[in-house]
Amino acid sequence: MKSIPAPLRRITVTLALPVALIATWWFTSAGSQNFYFPPLQTILDTFAKLWFSAQAIPNVLPSLARFSMGYLAAAFLGIAIGVPVGASRTLRNVLEPLLEFLRAIPPPVLVPVLILFTGIGNEMKALVIVSGCVWPVLLNTVAGVRSLDGVLEEVVRSYRIGGLARLWHFVLPGASPQIFAGLRQSLSIGIILMVVSEMFAASDGIGFVLVQYQRTFAIPEMWSGIIVLGIIGISLSLIFRTVEAWILGWYHGLRQSQRAS
Amino acid sequence: MGAPTTSVRASMSARTIVWLQGLAGLAGFAALLEIVPRIGLVSPYYLPPFSTIIVALFGEFHRAEFWTALGDTLKAWAIGLAISLIAGIIIGIAIGSSHALRTLTHSTIEFLRPIPSVALIPLAVLLFGSQIQSTLVLVVYASFWQVLIQVLYGVQDVDPVARETAVSYGLGRWAQIRYVIWPTTLPYLMTGVRLAAAVALILAITSEVAIDTQGLGKEIADTESGGAVAAMYAYLIVAGVIGVIVNLGARALERRALAWHPSIRLDSAEAGA
Amino acid sequence: MHTAAAPMLEVKRLRKIYEDASRTVEAIRDVSFIVGQGELVCIVGPSGAGKTTLLKCVAGLLPPTSGGIALEGQPVAGPPPAMAVVFQEYGRSLFPWMSVHDNVALPLKQKKMSAERREELVRNALLSVDLPDVGGAYPWQLSGGMQQRVAIARAVAYEPHVLLMDEPFAAVDAQTRADLEDLIRVLWRKLHVTVLFVTHDIDESVYLGQRVLVMSHAPTVIMEDVVIDLPDERTQLETRSMARFGELRKHIYSQIQLAKQGWRPPSERGEPRSS
Predict the structure, then answer these.
(1) Considering Cα of A140, then A145, then A147, then A148, what sign does the dihedral take?
(2) Chain C residues with CB inside 8 Å of B4's CB?
(3) In sequence order, what are the beta bridge partners of C31?
């Protein structure tokens, strides 16, 4: 193995197990008569037929659109509320128990509640996503603002850096690692909520389509839908990590230099 | 007169003040919940006043179905959590202590991890219907990753000097795990338990809402469709309280483990607030 | 060196008491002194002497319990624009998410000036601390001594009238410390800035200062205002081996020993004021 160039070796190692697993799946299911576990080949054929056609657009896009809106709204709200709460000890003490309680309510439980308020339309789904995703961002923002470095805070004060400049150059960057941890949690929660809200009550969307397939026993289609969800989950995670690496590059460098010393 | 003046006032008073402030926040929220529907800002059908909800809550306490549902949810939560813990620890230590295994499985783990467990809902329904196994599938799938990732962090954090010392003393694989790897991994594991416990509860109730398996989630969906709105909110409160208890308990556990291992851990404090 | 007519910095009967939920601590009881324009004054004292508290009060970062501080005749209520502070913890006083250049430039953005002027100040400041090429680097990529130089450059670029330094070299190694001490003297002469330098290192205070204020243990008062009558041109090797250096050093050292043993001024001991 040593004679093989490094990049090639890395690709091999990365793909070895996944390829092996997929191959195993393919071969063990090849002649399958099991109703619930059709051959992988059938699933992939169905996948290509369904999702690379007009099917995809009316279903995937609305789901992603609702998700993006809800997620971004939750991020904005969480940070906007989290910063002042994090900065004021009184506010923190007053609100923290309440916020801990609200965040402990499992978000999918709000689906029935919000159906009550807003019916089963797009607003419900977007609201569900917001109401579930806001808490990790909010609580992590509070924690991040709270743990801003005291020395740096004195530097900021001594140079009379105040107002918007203080927020933009000190508070937000300083709290950003913690904020991103919250955004990461919210990402998983948001995907769950996107799917569940659509399974429950929708006329389009991935979750809706998945439930339809299951109810009509369209098994290969259902499996292909699971794969689509998996791909969406992986893609969103990749996008998130790219953005995070870009914004928090300084932080990763800092931690590395600290660990080295 | 020459010594610095100090006086020791009870530090208790500071903590009591924080407690009271928190209580004030909760009470304020309850008051809001009481007033808003009563003055008609929101229709009392959609949002019953707080007092009505509390009455409904106590009404639920008298129903046997409430306690069965609560038990069902907690049962699914506990069993799923236990399975994912055992699997996560065993697989995590096995993979983590071998460099080869780690590099081989890294990509697979990173691929599988972000797949939302709710994607498995249709499959679970087909296989198990509304039985508890459906819930367990979701709970285990989601919590397992939390435990696995933390255990992997922990095993990787083992001090190489300690490990080499153990090897030079001729400690076998099992002894190494027991005396070197396990103590380092324990605090990370506690963080994993905290995260997994929270996720397990969410997924347990989610599957009950979505799949109609017995439990709190099902009660919430039923009360909503049956128009028993105040009871629905009562269940919400119960779900929240359980969630808080689970979070607090897990955090206390984590802190106990962290207290024995002071040096390690700004990292996983970021893993989740 | 003579002091100008109006003092640059005047501290009058400063008192600072810390109160939190559990204790009351009188850190500073009664401190008064004057720093003339362009002077370099050092403050030494045993640990626990409230030196950092004093500096923070002078900087406007901590409100005094009573007494006052005046900068160029104006009372100090919050951090004044004519003052810059260099902290001891250099690693934590630079913004890790900004490059060195942006770190130095940030305080200047609060002052009204053109972008060209700002760039010029940043460039010259980095040059004056002997770091012309690190503008694009991040602080955590630099060594400790270099990071402290960046903090000093940031203060220099700000064009302050008074430079406050809080044990800035306590956390660097001895060789770097010697270089940084000389750098401070060079900058001080070049920029004609007034410097108040807090340190626990007696040798450093004698080497750097024109005057050394010796602090007692908390509740702090000034024990003595020692004039350092060493020549203006100072070098690490020669100055530190001078006889006069040794005498001054020994004198301040014995004062600090007294302070550690709990020395209190005559007014507190209830004795009549005798000399």
Answers:
(1) positive
(2) 25-26, 218-219
(3) C14
Domain C1-82+165-171+193-268 is of which CATH architecture? 3-Layer(aba) Sandwich (3.40)
Q: Give the nearest partner residue to A214 out of B24, B126, B209, using CB atoms.
A: B126
CB count within 10 Å of CB C193 equals: 21
What residues of B are in contact with residue C23 (Cβ under 8 Å)?
6-9
pLDDT 10s digits, C156-178: 999 999 999 999 999 888 889 99
Nearest to B236 by CA among A101, A49, A216: A101
How many domains are there within chain A? 1
- Within a domain: residue A2? no
Confidence of residue B266 (pLDDT cuts 50, 70, 90): very low
> Chain B within 8 Å of C219 (Cβ-Cβ)?
yes
Chain-centre distance of CA C151, in angstroms?
Answer: 13
Give φ, ψ of C66 to 5 degrees: -155, 170
**CATH number of the domain to which A252 belongs:** 1.10.3720.10
- C22 vs B contacts (CB less than 8 Å): 8-11, 14
Contacts of B106 in chain A (CB under 8 A): 14
Residue A11 maps to a domain? no
- Cβ-count burial C134-144 (b if 16+ within 10 Å, e if not): bbeebbbbbee
Can you read off the two tokens belonging to residue C185?
Answer: 């003297």
> What's the number of CA atoms in the CB half-sphere (13 Å) around residue A75?
19
Q: How far apart are CA B163 and CA B155, in angstroms?
A: 11
pTM of the model: 0.85
Q: What is the rounded average pLDDT for all residues in chain A?
A: 86
Residues in chain B within 8 Å Cβ distance of C268: 1-2
pLDDT of C79 over the 80 cut: yes
CA distance C30 to chain A (A): 24
Cβ of B4 within 8 Å of Cβ of C219? The answer is: yes
For residue A251, what is the nearest residue in chain C, using CA coordinates?
C97
Tell me if A199 and B210 make a contact (CB, 8 A cut-off).
yes
| B109-127 pLDDT per residue, tens | 888 888 888 888 888 888 8
Task: Indicate the residue of B106, B206, B232 with minimum beta-carbon distance to A108.
Answer: B206
Tell me, what's the pLDDT at A2? 60
- Domain housing A73: 39-260
Which among B28, B118, B244 has CB closest to A192? B118
Question: Residue B23 and residue A97: Cβ atoms within 8 Å?
Answer: yes
Would you state the structure tokens that stand for residue C233, as one six-digit string?
């041109």
Lateral strand order in the sheet of C220-227:
C74-75, C66-71, C9-19, C24-35, C220-227, C211-215, C40-44, C194-198, C162-166, C83-86
C263: nearest CA in chain B? B2
Q: Which of left, alpha, beta for B61 (phi over 0: left; psi -120 to 50: alpha)? A: alpha
Instruction: Considering only the beta carbons, identify the residue of A149, A159, A170 that sits closest to C110.
Output: A159
**Residue A30 falls inside a structural domain:** no
Domain coordinates in residue numbering, chain C: 1-82+165-171+193-268
Instruction: Give the gap in angstroms from C-alpha B6 to the nearest C-alpha of chain A.
Output: 25
How many Å lie between the alpha carbon of A165 and the closest alpha carbon of chain C? Answer: 9
- The pLDDT value given to residue B2: 42
Residue of B nearest to A187 (CA): B114
Determine, yes or no, domain membership for A111.
Answer: yes
ipTM of the complex: 0.88
C140, two tokens: 């955590």
Ordered structural domains, chain B, with CATH: 40-269 (1.10.3720.10)
Do the Cβ atoms of B6 and C268 come within 8 Å?
Answer: no
